[in-house]
């Protein structure tokens, strides 16, 4: 059966408290698997205000109703209001996701800090941030994390290498078309295999080319009509599909099931690959339509 993996990025405290439980209900209603990737440290969403100077950021904000989706209070965390420690406050909820049968992994320690700085930081900074997240994951779940999905699809070679040291099996840190083994600048294997996101996200699509909450699912379903040998990975967000865009997500799940997809976790899709013969390639930074700035892409 062809497979489509659901990768759920949980960026904020509100998304954890409100979006995650709603997503679990929806996934169970559709008999779907998924991978939840958690932000495990402080919620400093308000510090994203400095991105106002990034080309394309204001147009994206106006298209996707950031205040409506995230809420005023969340947009003040880390500036006017102190950032709540998500992992410390919501440890029981996070364990409940695993106990409900879903794969869990690391998104980041501090989402804004990672997304805004990791691409230009050195190995020491990168390892320190990842170590904090890995330690908190171990405290919450009593075991090591086996997967990682970089916040904002931001990554560097030091992070890719450290994932292997942390004992991870695979990661989903960037965008691409099929699973692959990353290489370093010298052409040597780097870190663990990557399972990239293959489909655009709702916030990249809504507001462009006549796409709205009412019809964006039709566009995505057209992209998955043709079967691929290695399946698809769709990244959704607890703050979007888990809240005001839940109806869109329901329509997507119904549509993918009609197309014959088995909706699975990322590890389920990863385990279905021919791991002994994965293609290899570099992870590079580049731009994609609908998203401001650069992000990690499969070369």
TrEMBL record:
UniProt protein name: 4-deoxy-4-formamido-L-arabinose-phosphoundecaprenol deformylase
Pfam families in the record: Polysacc_deac_1
Family matches, as InterPro entries: Glyco_hydro/deAcase_b/a-brl, NODB_dom
SUPFAM superfamilies noted in UniProt: Glycoside hydrolase/deacetylase
Annotated source species: Chromobacterium indicum
Domain NodB homology: 2-264
